[in-house]
């Protein structure tokens, strides 16, 4: 009932080229977990979420959600604390830039970190082209490493790579920078090429030093293999619904407005919080949450089939 794969197929759909073969998904037996661990204790919230995930919200459910619509940004819901969850990347970028600007206005020292890119297996000569012109602009095509990152002590960041699974340092984990560690025992950024390590407080997962990493990926226009060295971090006062899938937060301001565009987005966004007390809704478009529109109808049909097959 969560987000379907990007440009991919549902796991329960048999690919066209595999139609003559055994339908492996149909060999599985359903074991349905029914105890809600994330929102345990908040039965009202659980009831709203269970109705939303299958497209059965009632007027009573909408009344509960409407009470959470607020533009207030005080205490735990201030722009510097509570996570904003949006459906689109441009909404996320705008909010992160807004928070960054608020820190700049207060005189916070902010460092601009630039990635170090190179071609390591060139298939063609660059000639008069700049290296930047053959490096993908999409962070998802550069191993999750950004081209530019602005950081400071106190910045809220998200890991974009699995660093150490045993310590909880995985893609999507969030924390606050508590120290910037410059190379060669420097006390400040000396060269624009400097990429420091940072100490991050990940809350329950403790404080850990995150170092720059290198990731290889295909360059554009068949120029070969590129490599980027960079901190595996992005600013995270706001995040997309997709990046939040699997995460849990205590406080969040959630967008449920007209720009929701994919099945499951509203459910995933709301269900990241532990309780109704931990959410505020920035914008609510009720038409996006009614009927089977907000849920993955294919998955819902398959769930019904699985239950009936027991």
How would you describe this structure to a colleague?
The chain has helices at 43-53, 59-66, 89-105, 241-244, 265-270, 297-308; strands at 83-86, 111-114, 116-122, 148-151, 156-159, 174-181, 197-201, 207-210, 213-218, 224-230, 233-235, 238-240, 252-256, 279-284. The longest helix is centred in the first third of the chain and has 17 residues, at 89-105. The mean pLDDT is 91. Strands 8-7-6-5-11 form a five-stranded antiparallel beta sheet, with no helix packed on it. Helix 5 (265-270) links the parallel strand 13 and strand 14. It is globular. With 310 residues, the protein is α+β, with helices and mostly antiparallel strands.
Question: TL;DR of this structure?
Answer:
With 310 residues, the chain is of the alpha+beta class.
Shape: globular
Largest sheet: 5 strands, antiparallel
Number of DSSP helices?
6
Structural class: alpha+beta
